[in-house]
Design goal:
The structure holds two protein chains of two kinds. Chain A is an all-alpha fold. In chain A, 75% of the residues lie in helices and 0% in strands. Chain A has seven helices and no strands. In chain A, α2 packs antiparallel against α3 and α5 crosses α7. Chain B is α+β, with helices and mostly antiparallel strands. Chain B is built from two helices and eight strands. In chain B, the strands form two sheets. A five-stranded mixed β-sheet of chain B has the order 2-1-8-6-7. In chain B, strands 3-4-5 form a three-stranded antiparallel β-sheet, covered by helices on one side. Chain B starts with a helix and ends with a strand. Classes of the chains: A mainly alpha, B alpha+beta.
């Protein structure tokens, strides 16, 4: 189904996503997980991206000091998989296709970064909206109240992801492609 | 960047800002609503624990200052109520507190601070029946301090 190389990268990205999330657990709603899942989708395609998202949350959502809830786990798994799916979609639409040939001083690089930042923001917006509503329904809070109560966390999540995607996407894509030497053929 | 696509991304960037702005607006609206509810609850508590009284200070030189609807704790004495609205000096005598100065005015020979209570049935001011620290005010009482020559 997947090549050994692709399978290894799926596991590696899941591990990176998990370790970074545990390392940043003290900062509410700010983590690099979403970026790694998006990058996975971008580098390997939508399905592997979705797999990285789901695998990450299966571990992180189960072994989590903040608690476990099956419905929330299902919501976060499906929400997270969106990052992987859109990552794959972005690559297939050619977003940042000429990244390897760009240099730091290149204006086009920052333009591509901005696009990644915006995508990161909107994906997080959808993710927060979805997970806040689901979390609210579980504890019997009206959706609107659940969204309003989650606003400070949502802002932290969305704004931080904007910057993580802005600064992280192109750097990671270029680096991982270089490391894999021909990773585009994954 | 191509023109059309560029504008699309700029618009999306602005939409990001709009989303954050809407978030802030909703958050602060909710916060203001919460503080409004807290204020109303505190005001209700205050109303339950306090009562309004009207206090007149007549400095005897043509200056008369009204402190209408002054909220004072229930069961307050006139002295306590006066201390809420003014700086009061007094001495404790045989019959209770005797006010010597209000807001620095007082101490002249043959001039004293006397307090009165408004008699609403007879529509006139009556002398305070007891010392100001022994008179327990009732809701909507109207009292006056007058600096008078004897």
């Amino acid at each position: 189904m997947f090549s050994t190389k692709k399978l290894s990268l799926i596991i590696l990205m899941t591990a990176m996503s998990l370790t970074s999330s545990y390392a940043m657990i003290g900062i509410p709603n700010v983590n690099l997980m979403d970026l790694f899942v998006f990058i996975s989708g971008y580098l390997m395609g939508a399905v592997p991206g979705v797999i990285v998202g789901v695998l990450t949350w299966l571990v992180y959502g189960t072994l989590n000091p903040l608690g476990f809830n099956l419905v929330v786990l299902a919501a976060t798994c499906s929400g997270e998989s969106l990052y992987g799916f859109v990552g794959g979609l972005a690559a297939s639409l050619g977003l940042g296709a000429d990244l390897p040939s760009m240099k730091v001083g290149d204006k086009m690089l920052w333009w591509v970064n901005l696009k990644f930042g915006i995508i990161g923001f909107f994906l997080t917006f959808v993710y927060d909206l979805f997970t806040n509503i689901i979390s609210g329904l579980i504890v019997d809070i009206p959706p609107l109240i659940a969204i309003i109560q989650g606003i400070p966390f949502a802002i932290a999540h969305e704004v931080s992801n904007f910057f993580f995607f802005f600064f992280g996407c192109s750097a990671l894509i270029i680096s991982i492609k270089k490391l894999l030497k021909g990773g585009e053929n994954l | 960047m191509s023109g059309k696509s560029g504008w699309m991304w700029v618009s999306l960037g602005l939409a990001c800002l709009l989303a954050v702005t809407i978030y802030f607006a909703a958050y602060y609206y909710e916060e203001s609503d919460r503080y409004k509810r807290l204020y109303e609850r505190a005001a209700a508590d205050l109303k339950r624990l306090t009562m309004p009284v009207n206090i007149l200070i007549d400095y005897g030189n043509g200056t008369r200052v009204w402190y209408n609807n002054t909220l004072v704790p229930r069961e307050s004495t006139l002295l306590k109520a006066t201390e809420i609205i003014a700086e009061v000096d007094y001495i404790i005598g045989e019959y209770g507190a005797f006010v010597t100065h209000i807001n620095g005015v007082g101490g002249e020979s043959n001039r004293y601070w006397i307090w009165y209570i408004w008699n609403s049935t007879e529509n006139n001011w009556s002398w305070g029946p007891v010392a100001c620290d022994r008179y327990i005010l009732r809701e909507e009482d109207t009292v006056a301090w007058k600096y008078e020559q004897f």
